[in-house]
Structures are given as structure tokens and as C-alpha cells.
Design brief:
2 copies of one chain form a homodimer. The first copy, chain A, has 243 residues and is of the alpha+beta class. Chain A has 8 helices and 11 strands. The structure holds a DNA duplex (21 and 21 nucleotides). Chains A, B: It comes from Advenella mimigardefordensis (strain DSM 17166 / LMG 22922 / DPN7).
DNA sequence: TTACATTTGTTCGTATGTATA
DNA sequence: TTATACATACGAACAAATGTA
């Protein structure tokens, strides 16, 4: 039987291979930082030519889901690599200087998801979320407050202590502790004003205008796993948009 | 003699082909909306295999510089296509509704470029620019003011009347009247306050906090051709970031 | 409607080069 | 040095979309 018969008509073979690779990643068959099998083995496994497999992998590489190293292999992307981190961290000083933020956990609780949170995270009505606030500093400036909500069902063992003690970036922490790989984010930006809590944390006057970055973060296959609202003081910093 | 000898060692052949294609585009050999020669002819012209030519074209397609249509040919991208336009227009209503803006030219003059404008547009110190303001409305809401500066040397025949009467988008206008193709933009976002002029145009109170979008727009080979500062009222609208 | 030529899309297989361990 | 793995390049064959006679 022709292999194409297994798929919808009109679906290119390389696309089906790409979906199979994504499914393997989502199932945890290959995990962060590890090499996936070499191209010739994968091609044989899927019963396609090396060129077809290559086209499928090409797309995942361009989406920063896999990383190729000539002579070594193809690896599941981690959030350790600097470039990849800055893909998701877009705030830098107005003179262009980039640094890693230092983080302080301000507040942490478990609560019933609001109606809006359920929509954003595609959760049932009675779901619970963890809801927490982080204060981020750059070059000793208090720059932004992240308000973050994640579904309890995916982050069951999350608690205040481990979150406060983590040494890595938050998405790296998700990856290492919950096996959740953030591969995409979608953001909407607008202007808001500091409420009393945020103003206190950022040491600014109440009602100071702030940049509001409303982000939903997705893992493989477009599944939302985090809703984040960042309120940033852009007096000395700015948001770098892509393309 | 090996063809590779013509290029820097370590430069892949497909990359050299891509640069040749870009040079042909920059020189105006192929113009907006037109089909470039078919793959087999280009492959023969450059003395490479069809697969190598294809890889070069693939990259230009992924950068939205060329557009392929199966059965018809490969075309120089225009700003007429909706999707491409929205790639550069990122403001939409909070409910997700997208529309084209209507534009009114508020002010137009020719002046000596400021020091900052010279830096942004990579111009010599004594260069002149056209400096103009547009008011943009969406769904009959006054949403944003664009402050735009372009080098006189590239837009020599630009004048208030043609700019005010244009029916197309601004980048389409650049393309049709000056042969300038905007293929990339880089944007930095922050918060500002409405000065008296902007407040008057947008019919809001002075010092209302606005989203400031600072954009440099580039044509082929990373040459900056426009500096634009957009001040947007995000009360009912928001900025959609990519990836 | 049909048939045909043109053009890009997909898939295959092979050979050789380069980087790594 | 050697083996492995990805990178580049070549060429061929057929499929699918398009436009035209």
C-alpha cells in the first residue's frame, strides 16, 4: 500500500513526518537537550528518503524546536541557550544593552481560575491555577512585574519554595521540573497604569503609565500552558519587537 | 575550474545565488508583481542545479521577498496582498477585529535631517529628509499618529499633493512611485505621553499615556529607508507582536 | 470540455564536503 | 586516524496547479 494512503489526501509526506516528530516530542519520547536519532535512522523508521526527512526537520529547526549541530546530531532545544532565552525576553535598556533579569517572587497562591483565565488556558470552568507575581530587575533597576497563571493540572507539584529558589529562567524551570517545553508565545501590547500594588513593588507613583504585555505561552501543538501579564516601566527600558 | 573558486571559501553556493538574486532585485532588474524567470532558466543562468537554485529561492520566499505560485511562477512580492500588509500593520481592536486604517495627511515639509535621523537612516550630516505626519483612523476611531521621515535622496519627487492623494498603503505607494520595496522593519516599543499637537489630532487630553512604536524600515540588503514614530491610543486597540 | 504545455511542489537517491568525537 | 552525523550539491521523476489552444 502506498504510504500516502495513511494520511489525508493533499497532505505532503514531509508534513506528516513533521507531525510525527512533534508527537514524539509531545509524548516525551525525546527530552530536552538530548539528541534525537540520526537522520538516516529516522528516514528509515518513517520509510521516507533522507531529503524528505530533512525537510520536516528543517521546519522544526526554523521554529527553534530542534537544533542541529553538524557532526554531532540534532537536539531537542532547551531554554539554556542564550539566544533562545532572549527570543522570549524582549526588554532591553534603551542604549541596546542586554542583561539577564534577577527575579524575586512576590506572591504565590493557588486559586480557582477566573473565567478569562479559563479561556486563555483552555481549561474547564472549575479548574484551578497557580497565580503568582515576580519582580524583575535589570542592572539594579526595578523594571517590571510579571503576573503569571498556570494550570494546576500541568504543574501539580509547583510550590512557593521551589519557585522562589529556582536558579534558572522560568521556562527552563518548567522544562526541568514539569517536562513542559515552551516553544511559542503570542503577545498583545498596550498601555496601562500602575495600581497601588505594582506601584509599590516598582517604587513608582501610583497611576504611572506602564507598558502592559499580555502573553499566552504555548507548548508543542499549540497547547496554551501559561498566561502572563507583564507591567513594565519603560522610562529606561524598551520592548524589542521581532520582524 | 570549480565554480566555488569564484566565491569566498566557506560560502555555500546557494548563498551566493541568493545574493545574486537580491542584487538583481535591488538593481530593479525585476520589479514589483512581475514574475522572475522560471527555475530551470535561472538554474541554467547561474550554472547550478535546480535543487541549489531552489534552496536560494526558498529563503527569499520565507523572507516574504518572493512569492511562489504553483503552475504560474515566482513573483516579486508586492504590498498589495492583505497578509503582507498586516505583517507591517500590527494594531487591531481588542476584540481581535482587523481593518484597514484610513489616513489623513496632517503636515508635510522638507527639512535638514536631525543628528538622530541621520543615524537612523545612515545619511551624511547635511542630508535632507521629508518629514510628515499622518492621522490614522480605524472604525471611525482616531487611533494613532505616524511621524515619518524619509531621505530626500531616495524620494526626490515626493510632495504634499501626491502623498495626500494616494489611494494605496504607504509602502505600496513607495513601491509604485519610487521603486522602493520595504522588506523588513525593526521596532522598539515604549510608553510616552501625548504632546499638545498629538493630543489635538487624536482628540484626547494632553499627557494621555500613549504607546510609542519606534520603527526603522529596510529595503533589500538591510538599507534603512524610513524612520517612523507611531503614537497610538490603546484605549480600544492593541499592538499584536509576532512570535 | 478536452488536451496540452508550462511551472512550481514533492519525493527520491547519490555523491561529496565538513565538523565532531 | 577513523567513524559518525550533518551540510551541500547534483539530477531525475512524477504530481499538482495554471493558462491556453
Amino acid at each position: 500500500m502506498n504510504k500516502k494512503e495513511f494520511f489525508l489526501p493533499g497532505t505532503p509526506l514531509y508534513f506528516a513526518v513533521k507531525q510525527s516528530l512533534l508527537a514524539a516530542l509531545a509524548s516525551g519520547e525525546w527530552v530536552r537537550g538530548q539528541a534525537i536519532p540520526p537522520e538516516n535512522q529516522l528516514a528509515e523508521k518513517f520509510g521516507v528518503s533522507i531529503g524528505t526527512l530533512r525537510k520536516a526537520v528543517d521546519e522544526l529547526v526554523s521554529e527553534h524546536i530542534l537544533i542541529r549541530h553538524q557532526g554531532r546530531g540534532t537536539f531537542v532545544a532547551t531554554h539554556e541557550s542564550d539566544q533562545h532565552f532572549f527570543k522570549f525576553f524582549r526588554i532591553q535598556r534603551r542604549d541596546g544593552y542586554k542583561t539577564y533579569p534577577t527575579t524575586r517572587l512576590l506572591k504565590f497562591r493557588r486559586r480557582k481560575a477566573t473565567r478569562e483565565a479559563c479561556e486563555r488556558l483552555q481549561l474547564p470552568k472549575d479548574a484551578s491555577v497557580f497565580h503568582f507575581f515576580n519582580l524583575l530587575s535589570l542592572n539594579n533597576d526595578l523594571v517590571m512585574v510579571d503576573e503569571i497563571q498556570v494550570p494546576e493540572v500541568l504543574f501539580a507539584t509547583l510550590n512557593e519554595q521551589s519557585l522562589g529558589e529556582r536558579s534558572s529562567t522560568l521556562y527552563n524551570f518548567y522544562q526541568n521540573n514539569f517536562g513542559i517545553n515552551i516553544v511559542d508565545t503570542r503577545e498583545k501590547l498596550s498601555v496601562c497604569q500602575a495600581d497601588s500594588a505594582v506601584a509599590g513593588w516598582l517604587d513608582i507613583a501610583e497611576a504611572t503609565p506602564l507598558l502592559l504585555i499580555d502573553r499566552t505561552a504555548y507548548t508543542y501543538q499549540d497547547r496554551p500552558v501559561e498566561w502572563r501579564q507583564t507591567r513594565a516601566n519603560t522610562a529606561k527600558y524598551e520592548y524589542i519587537a521581532k520582524d
